[in-house]
Amino acid sequence: MPLTLPSTTDHEDIREAVRALCADFPAEYWRTLDETAAYPEAFVDALTKAGWLAALIPQDYGGSGLGVTEASIILEEINRAGGNSGACHGQMYNMSTLLRAGSPEQKQRILPRIATGEIRMQSMAVTEPTTGSDTTKLKTTAVKQGDRYVVNGQKVWTSRLQHSDLMILLARTTPLDQVKKKSHGLSVFLVDVAEAMKAGMTVRPIRNMVNHETNEVFFDALEIPAENLIGQEGEGFRYILEGLNAERTLIAAECIGDGHWFVDKAVAYGRDRVVFGRPIGQNQGIQFPIAQAHIHVEAASLMRFKAAALHDAGQPCGAEANMAKLLAANASWEAANACLQTHGGFGFAAEYDVERKFRETRLYQVAPISSNLILAYVGEHVLGLPRSY
Ligand SMILES: Cc1cc2nc3c(=O)[nH]c(=O)nc-3n(C[C@H](O)[C@H](O)[C@H](O)COP(=O)(O)OP(=O)(O)OC[C@H]3O[C@@H](n4cnc5c(N)ncnc54)[C@H](O)[C@@H]3O)c2cc1C
Question: Which residues are in the Acyl-CoA dehydrogenase/oxidase N-terminal domain (predicted)?
Fold first, then answer.
């Protein structure tokens, strides 16, 4: 099927509406949150009330039934406006696991309540401290006992858990030495956070480089009702993987938003700041790195739209989604460096917001997937080279 890039006029109304909402949450808002390590509650509420966080929920369940293309534009605009989608993006892409593998009863029970903002499903617990990127080796177990699963183990970097009513949990239901493939025997569960906190789940916040609410989570004989299993037992890794292409594409869009923010900020400062009797942006040593970053942001954006269009057309998009994530994360980091350098010493002053966005965009080289793992994916699955890990 020939791919057409989304028409910009179709999406200009989305961009304008998200920009208007973001204008109520200016740089000072995000700066204060960063200084006080607080969660952007008012922003997330406003985004939910306006329906943007329900973009990917089908209309039958009270959402707007938009595609990843539109969702990516929403997140891009938030980051482009100086905000940080990391506080709420999980709600968009966690949805895909439930949408693809959840039962009609689960979807009917949960999705309309997420769409109205009554509950949040912002959190997904996959990563573990001892196994890291080697996900299929994770050690958290869920053992079926009658009409319940009993969960024991530990997760790390479980984000937004303290601002979420539901968490998606990946745990091993069949021991590794009893499965044919290591990706088998893992299952996905819906965890009611408030219930779990009273019954065997402990949460310990991790202080980190950015204002990101993320945690260590411990499970000590946590009981989950069997009806909270999503899809088939043992197929959970596949469900998570299927959702990752949307996640990669949406994260790419956030990077692109950041990239534009850095370029715009650097251009404005480069025009205004006069040293040695001329604007610093007149010097090629300042101008060219900004131009180079801009070109890379624009190129990454095209790959993002290609990945999103394939995804929305129901076509395979693993290669494009991964490539978009890598290109966009590199481009935003390049733009961040150009912007910081352009600002000289003032780039380090919190009131310019450059150092905050610089820290925020650095994360995308590591999470939700590190750049090396994307290169390994492209080497193996796109180019057919031997598996390197
Ligand atoms: C702020 C933040 C929020 C996060 N939120 C979540 C969340 O909500 N839910 C969740 O489940 N996880 C979350 N994560 C975890 C994130 O997905 C992982 O940090 C990431 O996948 C990398 O895993 P790791 O940190 O264990 O690194 P490791 O797997 O230990 O890797 C460390 C480094 O070694 C490299 N490396 C490892 N193996 C190879 C190899 N074979 N070849 C080449 N290089 C290799 C990696 O690329 C990386 O650079 C979050 C992380 C952070 C920092």
Answer: 8-118
| Segment 234-245, tens digit of pLDDT | 999 999 998 999
Q: Where does ligand 1 bind, in terms of residues with CB under 6 Å?
A: 124-127, 132-133, 157-159, 208, 212, 214, 363, 366-370, 372-373, 376, 389
Are 349 and 355 spatial neighbours (Cβ–Cβ below 8 Å)? yes
DSSP percent split of the chain into helix, strand, coil, nearest 5 = 60, 15, 25
Under a CB-based contact definition with an 8 Å cutoff, are residues 187 and 173 in contact?
yes
> Which among 371, 357, 290 has a CA at the least distance from the CA of 328?
371
Residues 285-302 have pLDDT tens digits of 999 999 999 999 999 999
Which one of the listed residues 233, 247, 355, 360 is annotated catalytic?
247
Cα distances (angstroms) measured from residue 147 to each of 35, 107, 171, 218, 283 = 46, 20, 17, 22, 70
* Residue 125, φ and ψ in degrees, nearest 5: -105, 100
Catalytic status, residue 247: yes
Q: What are the structural domains of the chain? A: 8-116 (1.10.540.10), 123-233 (2.40.110.10), 238-382 (1.20.140.10)
Minimal CA–CA distance to 125: which of 189, 213, 56? 189
The enclosing H or E element of 172 equals strand 166-172
